[in-house]
Amino acid sequence: MPSSLQRDMRNNRVALFDGIEEGGIRASSSYSHEIDEHDNERAMEGLQDRVNLLKRLSGDIHEEVDSHNRMLDQMGNDMDASRGILSGTMDKFKMVFETKSSRRMFTLVASFVVIFLVIYYLTR
């Protein structure tokens, strides 16, 4: 029995200290593989979360850019309309200054001021 007991102790010792080498501990290959696989799965889940976040973020940026483009188009259209109105006003002023009629000029300037004030109070 002593040899059987020695064999059992040796097997227990080998099982207990399996993987210990000089310079540190080396995990058994199956345990190491499981840890690597688990770490890889965790890393993949983290990457998937980041990809989903970036996808949502890029979608939000796209919507914001579209919104700003629509706003800029509307501002461009408004500026074109204002340019047309201003051009017509300048043509009328040129016409007034060419005629040199002070009564007509006064009437025109007064009407512009009244129209401006009415539009100002209506848009407030």
Automatic annotation (TrEMBL):
It is a single-pass type IV membrane protein. One of its GO terms (biological process) is protein transport. The keyword Hydrolase does not apply. It comes from the Eukaryota. Keywords: Coiled coil, Endoplasmic reticulum, ER-Golgi transport, Golgi apparatus, Membrane, Protein transport, Transmembrane, Transmembrane helix, Transport. PANTHER family: GOLGI SNARE BET1-RELATED. This is Bet1-like SNARE 1-1 isoform X1. The gene is LOC111305271.
